[in-house]
Write the structure tokens for this entry.
Amino acid sequence: MAKWVGSVSTPDGGRLQTTIYYGPWQCSAAFLSRCESKCAAQGHALMGCMWLADIKGDWKGRYLFMPAEAGGRLAITHCCCDYPAVTDGKWRRDTWDNARARYRREWSSEFGEWPTNPNGVPWAGHHIFDLGHGGAPVAKDNVLPVPGDVHGIFNKEYPACYAPGGKWLMPGPERPYVD
């Protein structure tokens, strides 16, 4: 499992730190059920569900002049519905390639610097809803910074998630990692 801990940012009235835990993990029963409903509502069948990452936010500040702390988690999952492959894949890839630097700057303004490896090379931007099945190339909620080795695992597992009867259709634990 990989993890990224962002720098502390100071929004008005407090300090916020973002931590991203990376899978992929099998979706919990609740996430599988949501994916099944989502696919069905779109007229598709569920092929699998991948829990890609968990984003944790920790805030410390003051509330009514008293010290306060709060936080939350956001599970990043992908529903592998039986979507057909797109015919405009080159356009989607070119659009992402042309917007990548701007996207990273915008992401950094909200979460802290886009992560880099020890050599200073930026991490890949992983498309949660993959480009090959219709994912938006630069949608704010569709690209996640991912370390290179994890990105390789994601790319290897996506075809398995879209294949019938694989492990991605079986439920996993409620929380697959420990902080």
